[in-house]
Structures are given as C-alpha cells and as structure tokens.
Design a protein that fits this description.
The structure holds two protein chains of two kinds. Chain A is built from seven helices and seven strands. By secondary structure, chain A is an alpha+beta fold. Chain A is elongated. A five-stranded antiparallel sheet of chain A has the order 6-5-4-3-7. Chain A has a two-stranded antiparallel sheet with strand order 1-2. The radius of gyration of chain B is 22 Å and the shape is elongated. Chain B is of the alpha+beta class. A five-stranded antiparallel sheet of chain B has the order 4-3-2-1-5, with helices on one face. Classes of the chains: A alpha+beta, B alpha+beta. At the A-B interface, β7 and α7 of A face α4 of B.
Chain lengths: 233, 134
Amino acid sequence: MAPQQRKPHVCRNPDLIRGVGKYSRSKMYHKRGLWAIKAKNGGAFPKHEKQAVAAAPSEKPPKFYPADDVKKPLVNKRKARPTKLRASITPGTVLIILAGRFKGKRVVFLKQLTSGLLLVTGPFKINGVPLRRVNQSYVIATSTKVDISGVNVEKFDDKYFGKKVEKKKKKGEGEFFEAEKEEKNTLPQDKKDDQKSVDAALIQSIEAVPDLKSYLGARFSLKAGMKPHELVF
Amino acid sequence: MPFKRYVEIGRIALVNYGKDYGKLVVIVDVIDQNRALVDAPDMVRGQMNFKRLTLTDIKIDIKRVPNKKTLVAALEAADVKNKWESSSWGRKLIVQKKRASLNDFDRFKIMLAKIKKAGVVRQELAKLKKETTG
C-alpha cells in the first residue's frame, strides 16, 4: 500500500491582513476544541505535575572581583571558506592571467585549493607556466575547456606551494652565506617530476584539438578595435 | 532620387531601436503619421513609431491586419527569411552577429587563417609579378 498522503493542513485562523486573524478569540476557542478538552477532563484544563527540578549545586561567591569591568568580545561564528568560485571556471577551463610575471598567458585551470587560490598549469612545455597558484580576481575565464580527466591533482595543496622554512643558521662569515644561497635556488627534482606527470596527460588532450597548442602558447593582448566590455571570452 | 521603399501594408522593416532591436517585422497597418501597427511571427502585434523602423526592399502580399496564421503563411509564401538572408544587408548583419559572438579561441583561429590566406595571396602575387617582369 502506498503511504497515506495527507493534504497539508490549512491554518485554522487565516490572516485578513498581517496581524489580524479572521476569527475572534471565542471563535478560535470553539475551533480548537478546547471546550471538548475541558469536558473530557471534567470542567478544567488538564494539568501536569511540575517536574522536579534537580537542585543546582550551591555556588560559592567568587574570591576575586576584577577592579574594572572588562568587556567580553562579541561572539563570531563565521567559518573560513575558500572564495566562491565563479560559475564560468570549471576544471579544464582555459584562463587568461592578467597580472604578474605571466600576464597575458593562457593557462589551464586544474582545481581550487582550500585557501581559495586557483591551481593552474601552462602546461610548462607549451608556455612556460609551471604548476602555480593564481588568484581568481586576476584571471579572465574563457569558454574554452580542455579535457582534464587524465590528470591527478589530489596531492597538490597550499602547503606544497608554501615557502620552505629554513633552519636558522648562526651568523657565519661572508663566504659561508654565499655558498648556501647558490644551492637553494634550484627547483627540487620531485617538483619537476610532478610538473611532468601532470602535463603528460594534459598535453595529450590538448594536442587532440587543432590549434589549441599554439593558442595556449600565445599571449593575449588587446588590439585596436577590441572593446573588452563587448568581447565574449 | 525618388523614393523606392514605401511604407505600405506588407512592407518588411527592420527594428533599429528598443526591445525588439534587430527583428524583422511586417507593417500590418498605419495608425497615424508617426506610427504603424507592426507584427512578426514571434511577437505580439503592436504599434511602433516609424522612427524605430528601417524599411527593407521586401514586401509581402497581405490584407490590412491579417491574423497570425495568415501572416505566417504569407511570410512563408514570399520566402522572406531566405530573401533576407541572401541579400547583402542581411548577410552583413549575420556576419556582425557572428563576429560579436566569437570566443577568444575562435578569434585566435581566425587570426591564423587570415595570416595563412595572406601568405597564399602574396605567393600568387609574387608569381604573377615574376611572369610580367621576366
């Protein structure tokens, strides 16, 4: 048997206008059947015994009263969330970077990190943009999408891109310092391998589309006659 | 110098201002010196100032204020859509619309195609120049 579907109950006392019901107090008394409840209970409303409240443990007066009234900070229940991603940006979208070292470069969007920044890659072989974080505000989303299904971006998060914490060295002499700096400027090999593995699958799906590779290799710029507010990206 | 396109019942006009911008409409009646009653298959029949209309060369055969069915039939019979889209004015509008809707990737592809075409033309020109001078 199908479960019994009850019609949603219309309210007993509809509003004539906001704040004024259709029926008076006495009419509502009758409608709600309070007379019947009284009759059932022998002329008075049924009363319940008050539940015994457990005696609260006696509080001792505090030993110390602060001299000045200290204001309590207001309660803040806001939770930190990553920036809302624009609807036009989905994994595989080609983005145009607008500022920084790679301005004008067309780049493939991989995923949004928990900090709200977008994880993006050139791919490196095509236009020299490595795996990088980019702010959503400095990006134009085009409507061109690349197939990103073969790419695994699970392991990348904000910590991967954070600055490496250096162990504090004691103050050395001048020669000491220069030697240290030279070593640290190269990229570690595992980051290079990550770049290669992400780009391998991407480049295959890019080469499947004609002209897409040269498109990603070219920079975007405004030419004469282009009106940004009229352009469809 | 004399006028060639007249306001008459059955004249097809292009709306050049307002909510129905870019639509082709049929003048179905003339209300007064400034306004016409105008109708199209996808709009409710209504009045429009002549200033909002640009007359075209196309005219269809209808009686004053036909009902929608008759109007649509008359438009089909006169093949207005194809006549418009094959006219140079109609083709220009179609190209304008296409250009406005181009994607960034499409614009890139067009740039490549233009360069290629220019390359081919230049080669032919160079060949012809060689023939005439050589």
